[in-house]
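Record 1 of the preview.
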Amino acid sequence: MFFMVATSFKQPVGEKPQKELPVTLPAAQMSLDRVGAGAPPLTIGVDKQGKLYVDGSRVSVQELHDHLKREAASRPGRPIRIDGDEMARYQDIVHVLDLCQFEGFTKISMHTRQ
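->
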């Protein structure tokens, strides 16, 4: 059974606001609100065409991989949040998950609409 947990984070004081991602999130039947649980997550978006975004900025697959390498070196425990469009190919989401796991990230969540 595939279970997705929706999380939401309040914007910490002094942090820059995240850009809006061009994705339509799938709905979830259950959600869990988490407030202020440590470091803000690195947000990776996957739109329905398979285009990738890091914190709202469009990136290529190689740029995403390079960004994840830098994050793993400087902030290895940082959580990752994947915002996948409801029409995105499963393969594109799995590729992002694989890149995150390859770089050693373990705190990975999927974001959905409530």
